[in-house]
């Protein structure tokens, strides 16, 4: 059961090469596709040198739309016969480095009868100094709408069975992609599991850049939760009017 790894990357020079090499060392991963989301460094060159198929976007479009561009490229390469139809699409961040080999645990979990989507539950990261607001907002929102408490609601490391992919794409824009994906999976009745995976990545600190990042993340999460609530209300009204 083969997998294609899809990696959105923004200014991950110095890390993306190690991530690509680690992913390519996993036997079941047939190809690694990197989407360079308008980086100002050598992310694209480093990714290609490590053996990835790299799509370079002319400007930064945000994580969700970068993933959408990557899914489009993967589908086109399948149609063109450049890669075979995969069993799984593996989503991975570009800063995992050599720890990305551990994502094989997600691939092992995505099998019929067990899970349609597997999400990595990461250990505490050295240097992480977040306030917990974005994660708390995501957790509360997902529990309210799905009834499930998620350990890692914002984990970008996810394995999705290819046949289940239409239920969760197109991905939501910006940093709301993970929350929106989980909501869509629940609405479609997909089986979602969390798997402990010993990964390491570049943690966001409490400096100005870190605070800005978390503010954007929280804004995207709030937008997805509000949008989901509105759509759910409209569906309920439509059903009641049809009775």
Summary, kept brief:
The protein has 243 residues and is α/β, with parallel strands linked by helices.
Structure description:
This protein is α/β, with parallel strands linked by helices and 243 residues long. It has one domain (3-129, 155-205): Spore Coat Polysaccharide Biosynthesis Protein SpsA, Chain A, CATH 3.90.550. Helix content is 41%, strand content 15%. It contains 7 helices and 7 strands; from the N terminus they run βαβαβαβαβαβαβα. The protein has a 7-stranded mixed beta sheet, with helices on both faces. Strand 1, helix 1 (16-24) and strand 2 (29-36) form a beta-alpha-beta unit. Helix 6 runs parallel beside helix 7 (208-242). The longest helix is centred in the last third of the chain and has 35 residues, at 208-242. The relative contact order is 0.15. The mean pLDDT is 91.
